Amino acid sequence: MEGALVANWSAEAVNGSDAPPEAEGNRTAGPPQRNEALARVEVAVLCLILFLALSGNACVLLALRTTRHKHSRLFFFMKHLSIADLVVAVFQVLPQLLWDITFRFYGPDLLCRLVKYLQVVGMFASTYLLLLMSLDRCLAICQPLRALRRRADRLAVLATWLGCLVASAPQVHIFSLREVADGVFDCWAVFIQPWGPKAYITWITLAVYIVPVIVLAACYGLISFKIWQNLRLKTAAAAAAAAEGPEGAALARVSSVKLISKAKIRTVKMTFIIVLAFIVCWTPFFFVQMWSVWDANAPKEASAFIIAMLLASLNSCCNPWIYMLFTGHLFHELVQRFLCCSSGYLKGNRPGETSVSKKSNSSTFVLSCHSSSQRSCSQPSTV
């Protein structure tokens, strides 16, 4: 389950199976119990998160496919980040939901290892693709000429996906199907050394949260400094233009081409909000993870772990809303194209009309659409 990416947490009672049995004598006499009320709330929230994540990111991918600016660098990274969020929804949120419904893992050992592996793949991918997008925005602001290499972007994204697949490999060896009580099996983590949980959870926290957040902070520190310099240049140019009259104003307009455009600043704002949402959603999760293994007196109540896990899951469905806030024209074009094609289809399928009249109706409707939608209806895009 997602809440048990590197620990065996669920909506169980405190006296449940918080730790796997290491010997025959440690097994409980009966199956561990769980808090059913908390489990029902968790199932309801996960259903909502799964629906929002699947529908939102699917709409983003469809909008990016149909837009005329599909080759934009920012849209390229948005596409892969949406794919990573879909991986989170399908391989983290969905297994978590099914697991909460059944309470125990009902599947072979191979499926147990595969689910645990794919859960961490999605977590790594969403983090490092966001980091890659932020690095791209940093280069676009600080070194705009260097940021024009499209082939390097593709190689960086490919290397990121491959790196996430490799970094998630330990999950396959740590988790397996184990007997947690007499006749009760579950997908459980097994560490050979007693310090294993501390080492592994610390490594996951460093790799997925602490190091990326430090790099992201450095990126946006540089971006903020560059934008501050840009504002100083604009202020100086405006003052020089006012002092030199009309000729100075013309010179200021020419030199402003070298300054940072408002469009770039807007994309930086969008990426910053995505990063902020990532930090807000994932901080409680990793805090609880580290607290549980490093503090022997940490609370064992399941509610704290469940809330932290649900907040982390929320990150996969909030990104599409951020995209909509800053690139609303994408979704406007998608809706216009859908309405355009739907109306054309309905007009063209009226009973009693000939094929010639169908073409005429469709063409007439296309001409009445918005200019951006007109192109999308008359010329379907291909990738």
From TrEMBL:
Listed name of the protein: Oxytocin receptor
Ranges where the G-protein coupled receptors family 1 profile domain occurs: 56-323
InterPro entries for this protein: GPCR_Rhodpsn, GPCR_Rhodpsn_7TM, Oxytocn_rcpt, Vasoprsn_rcpt
Pfam families, sorted: 7tm_1 (PF00001)
Topology relative to the membrane: Multi-pass membrane protein
Family per record: Belongs to the G-protein coupled receptor 1 family. Vasopressin/oxytocin receptor subfamily.
Encoding gene, per UniProt annotation: OXTR
UniProt entry tagged with the keyword Metal-binding: no
GO cellular component terms attached to this protein's record: plasma membrane
Transmembrane spans: 43-64, 76-94, 114-135, 155-175, 200-223, 270-292, 304-326
Classification via CDD domains: 7tmA_OT_R
UniProt GO BP: cellular response to hormone stimulus; female pregnancy; maternal process involved in parturition; positive regulation of vasoconstriction; regulation of systemic arterial blood pressure by vasopressin
Keywords (A to Z) from UniProt: Cell membrane, Disulfide bond, G-protein coupled receptor, Glycoprotein, Membrane, Receptor, Transducer, Transmembrane, Transmembrane helix
Biological function: Receptor for oxytocin. The activity of this receptor is mediated by G proteins which activate a phosphatidylinositol-calcium second messenger system.
Subcellular location: Cell membrane
